Amino acid sequence: MSMLKEVMSDVDEQVRKERLAYRLHGDVASLWKVVSERLGFLFQALGYALGHADWVLENRDDHPELASKFDAEIEALREMSKGWLIDASREAVQPLFNLTEWTNVDVYDPLIAVAERLLNEYRMFTSVREDGLYIDMPYTGIHDL
After folding, report:
1. N or C: lower Cβ tally within 10 Å for the chain?
2. What number of other Cβ atoms are within 10 A of residue 116's Cβ?
3. CA 13 to CA 25: how far, in whole Å?
4. Nearest-angstrom CA–CA distance, 127 and 35
5. Across the strands, what pairs with 135?
6. pLDDT of 97 strictly over 90
7. How far apart are CA 73 and CA 80, in angstroms?
8. What spatial distance separates the first Cα and last Cα of the chain, rounded to whole Å?
9. Minimal CA–CA distance to 120: which of 67, 84, 74?
10. Residue 145 pLDDT class (50, 70, 90 cuts)
11. Spatial separation of the C-alpha atoms in residues 37 and 125, rounded to whole Å
12. Which among 33, 36, 129, 118 has a CA at the least distance from the CA of 82?
């Protein structure tokens, strides 16, 4: 769980730094490479940490001390600037856990919504175009990034 706190802070700083660098170099491919790699890592870290924590919390009676520690750490994560990711990610994966048979890729829509909300916080707005993914990044003051 402590690793997740570091990842959340580091990724936030790295994406913001790259978003600012983009203002100078203007290379969206370079920006997108960093953003997609860092956010991919963030979601992997969320899945790993929350998966372990949720298992311990479900088995609280067998691991009371660890469960108490995880409760406190999860609450501390919720207080971070991207703390909303904790509950949003947990909620977004529920359709996958409740899936009894494959229907279609719509099961990923809640996760995509979480990723889009996160991108929007970095002032990056996505839309699907016939030739792929389009990223709109309005020019704003540096303080907005």
Report:
1. C
2. 14
3. 18
4. 16
5. 126
6. no
7. 11
8. 27
9. 84
10. low
11. 17
12. 118
| Contacts of the segment 34-38: beta carbons below 8 A, 24+ positions apart | 35/119, 35/122, 35/124, 38/11, 38/14
Both structure tokens of 132: 């792929």
For the chain, how many residues are written? 145
**CA-to-CA dists, residue 91 to 61, 85, 86, 104, 118, angstroms:** 24, 10, 9, 19, 15
Distance CA 85, CA 93 (A): 12
**pLDDT confidence of residue 13:** 94
Residue with tokens 């790259």: 18
pLDDT of residue 44: 96
Half-sphere exposure of 54 (CA within 13 A, CB side): 14
**Residue 62: its H or E element:** none
pTM: 0.86
Residue by residue, DSSP assigns 69-107 as HHHHHHHHHHTSTTTHHHHHHHHHHHHHHT-SS---GGG
- For the record, the structure tokens of 112 come out as 């995509």
